């Protein structure tokens, strides 16, 4: 009977299943800025992510099948569409264009409404969370992610990925995922939770810099800035502000359209929490 | 041929009621060698599917070759295909029943069975494609101490509701429509069958009150089923249309899917029509005029589907959504183009064969055509699912993926499963509605009493000679 | 801590016990344990051992040994296991940052293919043995009664420094030998030689962050050159508005640094020096820069390289030369550096010297190239490694001078070119001992294998060869108990070997830890407390907390001089028309990290290939050969043949084929073995005339299509953005309008 009572009491919560999409005024709003002009494409963030988040090494064959698990994926493009036809035809004049891609933690995430069991949902602090033990593996979320940043456990990777004693390195703060579960970048939610509880123990508010994501912490050129967008003193907020990118609007109303901040596929109205700063080249 | 003279009439009106009973009951008895071969074949196909599924269950979704952009593939396209097949029965029984198209009567029973079994087959796919099958019940809302309900905004949850509702309704519809026939069976058999039919015919005596109630119930179910059939495929279309992916995010998908469903359902009916007619010697019931009408109906639906298809192309083309356009162009010219062009040929050009009487009356040919139409329809679903996943917004993850033996095995297994269910059905239940065929004969012959069979048989022979 | 002494060993033991107790309590707590039994196991949670807070990670500082740069790291330790490495923010060298190799130090430590017990060659095969047996055999072969002494004995090691270096030298001294060969494929020895000759010190401080333009001749300072994380940090500042710097990279095949250049210039291998002089020529004659500080000989040399000569030699168009010179003139101060692809030729020294000459013409010396403080303890200074020593080693072997060779931290059998025939020569050495964590190519052919502790299990002190502003000793401390009880600390082993050979000052020292502690106490000018004990404790605690100890250093000044530079023109080779570039990449480095699954699965930065080797080709070369991506090409040099799958892109000179270093291991565990090819194996013989370093980039090849295709596994289905706004690029002008000063 208590179950029934529960349901009646919390009816609206159960009815909605998950939060409505779109931007909310939360207590925290974790966001990121990646300066593509500073990013060198060195892979340190990607390997740090493997180390921090128990990402499986799938091996050559599964990698060839597109079943790799790199939450932090460094993409490399050879062309520069924004520079027009200035590029040389026979040499790579301006180097390569690197793009670190991790879950964009959209505020109007397309993955969330389609999950049948509400495993992809929005946390009250603006994270686009994936609840592993609620996931049934319908993979609808990954299909509906325009950035293709969700990774599925096609196998029980743990069986082969960490032969002893490699398994001793596994981070006990987070799980090792079994087959059939969708996973993705969490903005190092375990670090956020630890910092929150530490701050609570010390009876203070979380300060900018208390939380560093694994990729940010290791980034040799400090191209990645992470923090709370609700904290108006935080570096990440100041950068968003400086480059006039805002949450909660599909179209950025920039006073100066040349400012470097942009979000990927903003026109899709997914409201990503990651702002990229445009790469610069002297031409 | 003698049948040609009867071409203007759906069925030979001179068939005696007793003969109808006898013919149909005969079809349910004494399986011949061919039946066992077919059964073994279906079991063989099914075991391939079971083996593949067990392998996949054991190891994970990896062996299916699914990968990061291609999270869905054959499972979902075959799911949509079987859902489409299930629209045949509804169309023939419910819609045509309401429109008083009497020619449907000899063939609606197996069409309804096809509906039910297609749904039972289709139902397997969303389950099989889950990464954690063992938790599939989580999409259904039930009171549990987890205190979590499914996400009612997800089209997959709508799917679960729609399919289960549709399945329940179509099983009921099939069963209710069968009650008078089950009573006939009950009166003609012994042993376990008698027990079964006695139980299932729920005391049918054929009195007026029962017939009145039966008619009302049947009509009510028919009315109930039609919106359900439309909604179930609209909801399946919503699986795609609700996503933001180019090539899926199409407003016209629900009617397009319903049209495609009716199309493939009708083509499926033609295939089974030919098979039953041949194997059970149902030439007198499954007559060429009925086939003609079915073919014409199929052609009409094919044209509706073609129209909706062209509308989709046009709206993508003039919509100037770059990614959608890329997907469309890739379908025409990319690695999937053989499949896509085949689909267009089978789906748009081939139905014109149905308006040629010579083809319609050539049983092997019309059978092949109907199978090709369904292959086209299957390809249509595959061409909806795969190219979009191969080629969406983010170029870095573009690519082509070909299904592995596991995926094919499960698709093949589903055909075996469907065939198996159908083969069992035709031997356990009457696959031609006896009482409704009798009605057809009745209307023309005004023969009222069942026990006058001898008298009826003789004059009819005299009249015919 | 209150008693003033903290023994890390005890502490680690405590930690191990604590971890076990915690897990036992967690597993069995609620079920069948009586209160008396349970009390013992539950106690660690209630009043845990010192420092052990179950579920709470504690950070300890140490030093990264994944490459010779010597970055400071901090390891997160929880329940007795080290879980994550981060850069140590207390160092100025890497300022809290770490590269992918550093991150993957964990998988070096936890590698499943580590050697776990000593092995002795017995009847042709290595068989497991006890430490007593192994050490007894070593004593028999190298002890005082072995008859081996002097030049019959040699150490072949990787670069080393600090107190391990001291012990190594002490052992050599005890053996009476001076044969210390230090091998390192990816090194900056030529740069150091040039700096020493031209500036008076070998490791001047470089300030990218102060430069407005960096012109780099193949110096992959973001990937493998000198101290990549230090320079990456500087690069971050260099790329910051309002004065965003410009990077020009000239090299035969694109490195990570080249991939980040504003202007990437493909040039013919071996013509870096000519390019530098050609630019100097333009600066002097076209941009009218003052070159009065140059001696007449240098000016004459520069005058030789007008635009036409430079252009025809280097393959760089005249327009581009003019553009580079203009940028250099306009953006001052600048910085010119030269790295592996400039130095790896027979005239490598000359090319690097030409680059340094350019710095002088541009007036960068003293602005972006600054004198480095003198490290005060000469005995702890880094013992630099290079490839010249490999040649010397091979010569010594050929002459039959060596009876006993000890290896540590070097894998010469993998890295040596085939023409050295090192394998055969080493087989002729009667007794070889490998101090090794892994069964690599060299270890597999040793007579005794001594399994050593990983970098995260061992003590040590390190002095980085490039230190920049900070003069410091970096400390390495164990982050956890050894995983395999059969492994031993290299320092302990060295001490044992010294004691075994000769009585001396080390006899009173029990182990390496004790040695370090006592040695640190003697460092003058370090943190002082009251009383002798206090000194030690405070200093030691400081070291353990910070991981680095800044030492007082003397400032220095440059003494510039300009040597004679001679460069020959580019010559064609009809038989072998093309050039081979054995690309060093952060990741596998010289091949030592090929056994780390994270790094195998981390896509190569440029080609995005994983788990394999590839051959980079220019589209024009690919068209000529008729190959497409994934097709296998055959690369023939005078010294051998390798085959690799083609990857085609424009970031390479049309006459060059680049094959990455690192793969092609025949041993080295499950992740490395039998993958890809090793370009080092087919290198042509040839050394830099001045330093003797191998001409790594001087190999001439011919290339053929094999007609076969392989499966090139890489991430990314496309090379282009298909017109989407993914990586948006703006021009420098635009940036100056919005974020400029």
Tell me briefly what this model is.
With 465 residues, chain B is mainly α. Chain B is 71% helix and 0% strand. In chain B, helix 5 (87-98) packs across helix 9.
Summarize the topology.
The complex is a heterotrimer of chains A (283), B (465) and C (741).
Chain A: H1 2-9, H2 11-16, E1 30-35, H3 44-52, H4 60-64, E2 73-77, E3 97-101, H5 111-114, E4 120-122, E5 128-130, H6 140-143, E6 151-152, H7 158-161, E7 182-183, H8 189-201, H9 214-218, E8 224-228, H10 235-242, E9 261-262, E10 274-277, E11 279-281
Parallel strand pairs in A: 1-10
Antiparallel strand pairs in A: 1-8, 2-3, 4-5, 6-7, 9-10
Chain B: H1 2-5, H2 17-27, H3 33-59, H4 74-85, H5 87-98, H6 108-128, H7 155-188, H8 191-200, H9 208-241, H10 253-279, H11 288-319, H12 322-333, H13 337-349, H14 357-360, H15 363-390, H16 405-428, H17 434-445, H18 453-464
Helix pairs in contact in B: 2-17, 3-16, 4-6, 4-10, 4-15, 5-6, 5-9, 5-10, 6-7, 6-10, 6-16, 7-8, 7-9, 9-10, 10-11, 10-15, 12-13, 13-15
Chain C: H1 8-28, H2 35-46, E1 58-63, E2 72-78, E3 81-87, H3 100-103, H4 105-109, E4 119-122, E5 125-128, H5 131-142, E6 153-157, H6 162-175, E7 180-182, H7 189-199, E8 205-206, E9 213-217, H8 228-238, E10 246-251, H9 256-259, E11 263-266, H10 272-285, H11 296-304, H12 307-314, H13 318-330, E12 334-338, H14 340-343, H15 348-362, E13 369-370, H16 388-398, E14 404-408, H17 412-415, H18 422-427, E15 431-436, H19 441-444, E16 448-451, E17 460-462, E18 472-476, H20 490-501, H21 512-521, H22 531-546, E19 548-550, E20 578-583, H23 597-601, E21 614-617, H24 619-625, E22 631-637, E23 640-648, E24 656-660, H25 669-672, E25 699-709, E26 729-731, H26 732-739
Parallel strand pairs in C: 6-7, 6-14, 9-10, 9-12, 10-11, 14-15, 15-16, 20-24, 21-23
Antiparallel strand pairs in C: 1-2, 2-3, 4-5, 4-16, 8-13, 17-18, 18-19, 20-25, 22-23, 22-25
Helix pairs in contact in C: 1-2, 6-20, 7-15, 10-11, 10-12, 10-13, 10-15, 21-22
Characterise this structure.
The complex is a heterotrimer of chains A (283), B (465) and C (741). Chain A is an alpha+beta fold. Chain A has a single domain, classed as Alpha-Beta Plaits. Helices cover 23% and strands 14% of the residues of chain A. Chain A contains 10 helices and 11 strands. In chain A, the strands form 4 sheets. In chain A, strands 8-1-10-9 form a 4-stranded mixed sheet. A two-stranded antiparallel sheet of chain A has the order 2-3. In chain A, strands 4-5 form a two-stranded antiparallel ribbon. The longest helix of chain A has 13 residues. The termini of chain A are far apart. The relative contact order of chain A is 0.21. Chain B has a single domain, classed as Formate dehydrogenase/DMSO reductase domain (Formate dehydrogenase/DMSO reductase fold). Chain B is 71% helix and 0% strand. Chain B has 18 helices and no strands. The relative contact order of chain B is 0.19. With 741 residues, chain C is α/β, with parallel strands linked by helices. Chain C is built from 26 helices and 26 strands. In chain C, the strands form 6 sheets. A 7-stranded mixed sheet of chain C has the order 5-4-16-15-14-6-7, sandwiched between helices. A 6-stranded mixed sheet of chain C has the order 21-23-22-25-20-24. In chain C, a hairpin with a 2-residue loop joins strand 22 and strand 23. In chain C, helix 1 packs across helix 2 and helix 10 packs across helix 13. The radius of gyration of chain C is 27 Å and the shape is globular. In chain C, 56% of the residues are buried. The N terminus of chain C is likely disordered. Chains in contact: A-B, A-C, B-C. Chains A and C meet through helix 3, helix 4, strand 2, strand 3 and helix 9 of A and strand 3, helix 3, helix 8, helix 9 and strand 11 of C. Strand 11 of chain A pairs parallel with strand 26 of chain C.
